[in-house]
């Protein structure tokens, strides 16, 4: 039987703010570090080979632990898991700022990734179940969407400002007081929920298989960027990670209390939402990464100037996610918003594929970034609402972890594929005699078109979304009709 919505005497919107600030802090940390990598290398004497592990040491545990952390939230309480993750994230941020060498920073970043996964795994589930009516539910999910997308867009700007005005250490130190405040506010505002209990779902073999498989898959993807997709290490670790994940699927089909019930995927809404999320994020990661390179390596922007260039897209995402999207979803339903947003994102990628080597910000980047912000601001709340309303409240933690896992794997795979396209095209143009900037831009053009292709696939998959996701649907967070049919 589905659990009732948790009650609290305090404003549920204050709870949403606390959860979304926590989510934004974690997302910011994934992006803010990139801008500071040159300063980190100079300050700690990192070798070029090990510098990439300042990023990867965070990404690997983060992507691998989300599903397990989400299920733990269902079992022992999502509030408990969220606060434990924020505490670990803040403590490890302090260790990162105090690091005096390569090993200590990489080890601390690994702990940060663990804490980030634990904290963020349940946030979407808690936000989506905070309100019983669809209008406020859509507003809450919109706030979560802004925290995730806005954090990614603001990260390069904040990283440039903090690194230039203070030092690289402060990109980590800044998390400590914010995290401490979140723990205090979380204890006061986030309602305590009684979990199902460990006896209801302690699938330890499944947890071991999926955690090992996901971490190994993420490691293989990020490592292939430097070792190559045809390297012996990639050819061994890639199939091994898939074998572990295949074992996890078999385990879920036979376990008495599966970590991820396979009946979830009989829900058309949940399955479509996760596939759309995967393809959309695969493209969006390409936008953030290659558009930054275009601004810096082709238009010769500095790190701070490049960061400021993303302010308009963050502003548009905020305006749409926090206000417009909820009203439109309530009025027209999630499906039209999903289609309209994906069309805008695809249009933005096509526009970027015409960026010029001697281009200007106002002509070659700003229009596309505004369309991207509007499209993502419409699509993200729609796709998250589409998936989360198809899941019982008692299992919202594992569904939230699944959404976050889909996002992380989609981003990692998408960026790896797009980077391979860029490298091949850039090398081809360089061999043909093109100068460096034109060769790079040719590679970025291919990446933007391929990213647009990802979004078009998401659009085609979205056609399968149930038409029942109308303003009248989902008034309470409970299984959708297709989920109920599958479960029976």
From TrEMBL:
One of its GO terms (molecular function) is transmembrane transporter activity. NCBIfam families: efflux_EmrB (TIGR00711). The keyword Phosphoprotein does not apply. The lineage of its organism: Bacteria, Bacillati, Actinomycetota, Actinomycetes, Kitasatosporales. GO terms for biological process: response to antibiotic. The chain crosses the membrane at residues 12-30, 50-69, 81-101, 113-131, 143-162, 168-190, 202-222, 228-250, 271-294, 306-326, 338-357, 369-390, 402-422, 442-465. It comes from the Bacteria. GO terms for cellular component: plasma membrane. Its main location: membrane. Residues 15-470 form the Major facilitator superfamily (MFS) profile domain. The keyword Amino-acid biosynthesis does not apply. Keywords: Antibiotic resistance, Cell membrane, Membrane, Transmembrane, Transmembrane helix, Transport. It is found in: Cell membrane. Pfam families: MFS_1. InterPro entries: EmrB-like (IPR004638), MFS (IPR011701), MFS_dom (IPR020846), MFS_trans_sf (IPR036259). It is a multi-pass membrane protein. Residues 469-488 are annotated as: Disordered. This is MFS transporter.
């Amino acid at each position: 039987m589905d659990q009732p919505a948790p009650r609290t005497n305090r404003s549920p919107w204050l709870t949403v703010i606390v959860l979304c600030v926590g989510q934004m802090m974690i997302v910011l940390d994934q992006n803010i570090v990139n801008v500071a990598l040159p300063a980190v290398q100079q300050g700690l004497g990192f070798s070029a080979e090990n510098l990439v592990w300042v990023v990867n040491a965070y990404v690997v545990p983060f992507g691998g632990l989300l599903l397990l952390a989400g299920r733990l939230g269902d079992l022992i309480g999502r509030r408990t898991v969220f606060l434990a993750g924020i505490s670990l994230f803040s403590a490890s941020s302090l260790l990162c700022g105090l690091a005096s060498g390569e090993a200590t920073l990489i080890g601390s970043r690994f702990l940060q990734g663990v804490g980030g996964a634990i904290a963020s795994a349940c946030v979407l589930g808690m936000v989506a179940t905070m309100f019983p009516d669809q209008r406020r539910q859509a507003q809450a999910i919109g706030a979560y969407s802004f925290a995730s997308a806005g954090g990614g867009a603001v990260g390069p700007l904040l990283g440039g400002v903090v690194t230039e005005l203070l030092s690289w250490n402060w990109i980590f130190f800044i998390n400590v007081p914010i995290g401490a405040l979140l723990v205090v506010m979380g204890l006061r505002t986030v309602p305590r929920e009684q979990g199902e209990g460990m006896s209801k779902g302690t699938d330890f073999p499944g947890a071991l298989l999926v955690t090992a498989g996901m971490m190994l898959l993420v490691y293989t993807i990020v490592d292939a960027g430097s070792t190559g997709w045809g390297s012996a290490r990639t050819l061994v670790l890639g199939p091994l990670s898939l074998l572990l994940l295949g074992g996890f699927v078999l385990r879920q089909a036979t376990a008495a209390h599966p970590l991820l019930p396979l009946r979830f995927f009989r829900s058309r809404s949940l399955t479509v939402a996760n596939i759309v999320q995967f393809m959309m994020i695969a493209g969006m990661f390409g936008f953030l990464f290659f558009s930054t390179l275009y601004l810096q390596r082709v238009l010769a922007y500095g790190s701070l100037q490049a960061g400021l260039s993303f302010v308009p897209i963050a502003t548009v995402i905020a305006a749409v996610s926090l206000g417009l999207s909820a009203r439109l979803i309530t009025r027209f339903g999630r499906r039209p918003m999903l289609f309209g947003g994906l069309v805008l994102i695809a249009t933005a990628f096509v526009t970027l594929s015409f960026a010029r080597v001697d281009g200007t910000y106002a002509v070659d980047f700003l229009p596309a970034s505004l369309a991207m912000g509007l499209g993502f601001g419409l699509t993200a709340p729609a796709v998250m609402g589409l998936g989360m309303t198809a899941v019982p409240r008692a299992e919202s933690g594992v569904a939230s972890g699944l959404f976050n896992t889909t996002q992380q794997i989609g981003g990692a795979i998408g960026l790896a594929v797009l980077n391979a396209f860029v490298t091949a095209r850039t090398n081809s143009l360089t061999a043909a005699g093109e100068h460096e900037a034109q060769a790079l831009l040719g590679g970025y053009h291919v990446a933007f078109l391929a990213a647009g292709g990802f979004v078009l696939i998401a659009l085609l998959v979205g056609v399968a979304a149930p038409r029942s996701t109308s303003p009248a649907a989902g008034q309470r967070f409970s299984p959708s009709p297709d989920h109920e049919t599958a479960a029976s």
